């Protein structure tokens, strides 16, 4: 059984980037997935993020599990690798049958959570996961029931930590309070969409169907106050910061974005980096851990270089002033 990790192990400042495995086994073939994983570990990467539902929308059978199965085969082919990486997976968003999402999904009831974790452990070929995310909020289930299910999994050693993805701050607070009353581990991490640009108030970026999925000032304040980790998905907007063939989502089209993009371009030029690399460095400087869903080794290398870029006080001040 995998032992619980120490805070210094899971918060290593040398490797702030998280490797997102969402498309492994679907859009990204197994050979390329293995190459990206190998390179990530070679460069000191630790955290690999997946989910039981990845990636049902690209899967021939309309169900998730491909990503976890690829990771399981990679771990099996690399003896000793399990001790070198930290694995997070998610529960709650798997379709009940092909085409049923989002109306009919597994949810976060006690039985669903236990079944989700059992399936993930089998596909990954591991005895425990280092962090289990509640993938998206389930208003049909009392959050207390979900917390009690997680407590049972923690007690048996199958889950070390728990995080909340796409949950409003008040639900997280309620979950943490109930965990405290049970004497079990509380939610200690949030995973949300975050980048340098900010969408227009009330607007949702394309593809984000979660009402509480974009990092808000309230969620950020809550995380700071209670010292929760914050992980950011879609940090690079699918490459839109640097690729002319990837236009920036219209929800970011407002005067504030023009100021931010101008500052970003100036800092990128001054540091000899791409705008995307500066975005990653800026997020890290804010204490936010970006998740990269890169599909090639060169993309991974560029992202790791960006996450490791130390911006000067002057450059941070310029970026913050534009923000």
TrEMBL record:
Lineage top rank: taxon: Bacteria
Domain NADP-dependent oxidoreductase positions: 16-322
Protein name: Aldo/keto reductase
Pfam families: Aldo_ket_red (PF00248)
InterPro entries assigned to the protein according to its UniProt record, in alphabetical order: AKR_Detox_Biosynth (IPR050523), NAD(P)_OxRdtase_dom_sf (IPR036812), NADP_OxRdtase_dom (IPR023210)
């Amino acid at each position: 059984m995998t032992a619980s990790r120490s805070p210094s192990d899971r918060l290593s400042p040398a490797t702030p980037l998280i490797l997102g495995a969402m498309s492994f086994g679907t859009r990204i073939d197994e050979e390329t997935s293995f190459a990206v994983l190998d390179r990530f570990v070679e460069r000191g990467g630790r955290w690999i993020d997946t989910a039981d539902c990845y990636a049902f929308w690209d899967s021939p059978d309309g169900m998730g599990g491909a990503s976890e199965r690829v990771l399981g085969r990679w771990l099996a082919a690399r003896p000793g690798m399990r001790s070198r990486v930290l694995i997070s997976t998610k529960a709650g968003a798997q379709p009940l049958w092909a085409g049923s999402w989002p109306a009919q999904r597994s949810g976060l009831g006690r039985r669903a959570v236990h079944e989700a974790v059992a399936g993930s452990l089998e596909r990954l070929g591991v005895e425990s996961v280092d962090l289990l995310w509640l993938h998206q909020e389930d208003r049909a289930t009392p959050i207390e029931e979900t917390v009690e299910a997680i407590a049972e999994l923690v007690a048996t050693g199958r889950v070390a930590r728990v995080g909340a993805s796409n949950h409003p701050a008040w639900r997280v607070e309620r979950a943490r309070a109930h965990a405290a009353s049970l004497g079990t581990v509380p939610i200690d991490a949030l995973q949300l969409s975050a980048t340098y640009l900010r969408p227009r108030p009330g607007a949702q970026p394309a593809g984000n169907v979660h009402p509480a999925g974009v990092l808000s000032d309230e969620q950020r304040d809550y995380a700071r106050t209670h010292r929760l980790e914050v992980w950011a998905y879609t940090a690079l907007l699918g490459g839109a910061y640097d690729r002319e063939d990837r236009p920036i989502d219209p929800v970011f089209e407002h005067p504030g974005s023009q100021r931010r993009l101008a500052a970003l371009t100036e800092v990128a030029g001054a540091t000899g980096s791409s705008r995307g690399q500066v975005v990653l460095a800026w997020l890290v400087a804010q204490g936010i851990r970006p998740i990269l869903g890169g599909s090639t080794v060169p993309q991974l290398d560029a992202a790791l270089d960006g996450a490791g870029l130390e911006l000067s006080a002057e450059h941070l001040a310029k970026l913050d002033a534009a923000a």
